[in-house]
TrEMBL record:
Catalytic activity: D-ribulose 5-phosphate = D-xylulose 5-phosphate
Protein name: Ribulose-phosphate 3-epimerase
Cellular component GO terms, alphabetical: cytoplasm
Active site as annotated: 33 (proton acceptor), 173 (proton donor)
Gene Ontology biological process: pentose catabolic process; pentose-phosphate shunt
Residues annotated as binding substrate: 8, 64, 140-143, 173-175, 195-196
InterPro entries reported in the protein's UniProt record: Aldolase_TIM, Ribul_P_3_epim, Ribul_P_3_epim-like, RibuloseP-bd_barrel
Function of the molecule: Catalyzes the reversible epimerization of D-ribulose 5-phosphate to D-xylulose 5-phosphate.
Cofactor binding: number and manner: Binds 1 divalent metal cation per subunit.
Pathway it works in: Carbohydrate degradation
CDD domains membership: RPE
Gene source species: Demequina activiva
Taxonomic classification: Bacteria, Bacillati, Actinomycetota, Actinomycetes, Micrococcales
Enzyme Commission numbers on file: 5.1.3.1
Length: 222
């Protein structure tokens, strides 16, 4: 797969969620941020909302779990209809067991690393995952500034991903915009989460196309 854009519903209008999901229907994924007020100091939505969102979303749903005890919860999000489930390495007791269970349920298995977590923790186990999310902000809130110092982590994972047999994707989340997407693409990112950049744009579909074009160009130039 090439460059993919995943608008985050964190920046959508929760009173008009279906309208705001359909307004980004040229996106590759819908990014669904789940926060529990414990793993991160913010609280969003969970399983009952996901169950309805997958019924109305024209694109597959990419769940980002920022919650404690993903060993228990991650499979439930797969069963509720997510096409991809990302859990945080820092919250997991047994990341490989979670990933194996997600794959058994037919869902893409993805692990996220907070800015302070080294790629070392997954680099020897990449065969177990379909995607690695390199957070480019501290998880918890939309609209924060992109952290360019995460690019060496992404580059290292890109180099290691070429050693595994399957198509392992890398994702970045936090502060992705027209100004920053090129850096992440050049460092090897495949899937770009963008919340405020897409939902804050006057023409959301045009913004998605602009982000995709900038990422493709930066990838080709790299
Ligand atoms: O996981 C997240 C925050 O923890 C969100 O997906 C992310 O912040 C997207 O928002 P923005 O593009 O506005 O930074
Ligand atoms: Fe996210």
């Amino acid at each position: 797969m090439g460059i993919q854009i995943a608008p985050s519903i964190l920046s959508a209008d929760f009173a008009n969620l279906e309208r705001d999901i359909v307004s980004v229907d040229n996106a590759d994924w819908l990014h669904f941020d789940v926060m529990d007020g414990h793993f991160v100091p913010n609280l969003t939505v969970g399983l009952p909302v996901l169950e309805r969102v997958v019924q109305v979303a024209p694109m597959p749903v990419d769940v980002h779990l920022m919650i404690d005890d993903p060993d228990h919860w991650a499979p439930r999000y797969a069963q509720a209809g997510a096409s991809s489930v990302t859990f945080h390495y820092e919250a997991a007791q047994d990341p490989v067991a979670i990933a194996r269970e997600l794959r058994r349920l037919g869902t893409r298995a993805s692990v996220a690393l907070k800015p302070g977590t080294s790629a070392d923790v997954v680099i020897d186990r990449l065969a177990e995952f379909d995607m690695v999310l390199v957070m480019t902000v501290e998880p918890g809130f939309g609209g924060q500034d992109f952290m360019p110092d995460m690019m060496p982590k992404l580059e290292r994972l890109r180099a290691a991903a070429s050693e595994v047999d399957h198509d392992l994707w890398l994702q970045t989340d936090g502060g992705i915009s027209r100004e920053t997407i090129g850096q992440a693409a050049a460092a090897g990112c495949d899937v770009f989460v963008a919340g405020s950049a897409v939902y804050g744009a006057e023409d959301r579909r045009a913004e998605i196309e602009a982000l995709r074009d900038l990422a493709r160009q930066a990838r080709d130039d790299a």
